[in-house]
Amino acid sequence: MAHVSANARREQLIEAAVKVIAREGADGATTRKIADEAKAPLASLHYCFQNKENLLLAVFTQLSEEMPVDADLPEGENATLGRVIEQCLTRAMRWSVENPVRIRAMIEVTLWAERHDPELSVSFYDAFLKSSEAALRQVDVPLSDEELHSVVRVAMSMVDGLSLQMLTNGDKERTLRDTATACAMLKAFLGESER
Questions:
Q1: Which of 88, 92, 68, 67 is nearest to 79 (CA)?
Q2: What is the pTM of this model?
Q3: Strand ranges (DSSP E) for the chain?
């Protein structure tokens, strides 16, 4: 049998955990089921992560790094806060639509953290809040810090809600249309309505 490095095994176990969590929920994702999905010895899971909690944290970290929460505006473009929010929200939702198993696992791990360690789930959202705000600060932000925090939290709730709807009804095209509506609503709130 070929030797698998610890880093490669960690990646295998994280990928297996994503699949098992999406299929069975975080509570139903036992270390044995995850190791079986990865075709790895259970001992290797404990060697790489020590316990299930550390593996779930690694899953959340991996998925949160994958989900785009940034904007990529061309130089010289007249960028406004509304346009940056629109790009961030649209990119996040396209990722969700293209990765339903991953978004389901992310939601499951977030709910698991809220049940088992509420401070941890708060830290999950705080990490998204900070990275989203950093993306929005690419332009002159005409809002106070508290107003910006509120807009970012609303945009995050839109991603959560639209993702849950997409997982429930499976209609990816409708999800993207609803994302465009959500963006228009945020831009209208910011006084950037294009209608």
A1: 88
A2: 0.88
A3: none
Amino acid type, 4: V
Residue with tokens 């709807």: 165
What is the residue whose two structure tokens read 């088992």?
116
Per-residue CA distances from 160 to 53, 101, 175 (Å): 23, 14, 12
Residues 6+ apart with CB under 8 A from 113: 56, 60, 120, 121, 124
pLDDT in tens, 165-192: 999 999 999 999 999 999 999 999 988 7
Distance CA(104)–CA(15), nearest Å, equals 13
Which candidate, 12, 110, 120, 37, places its Cα nearest to that of 67? 110
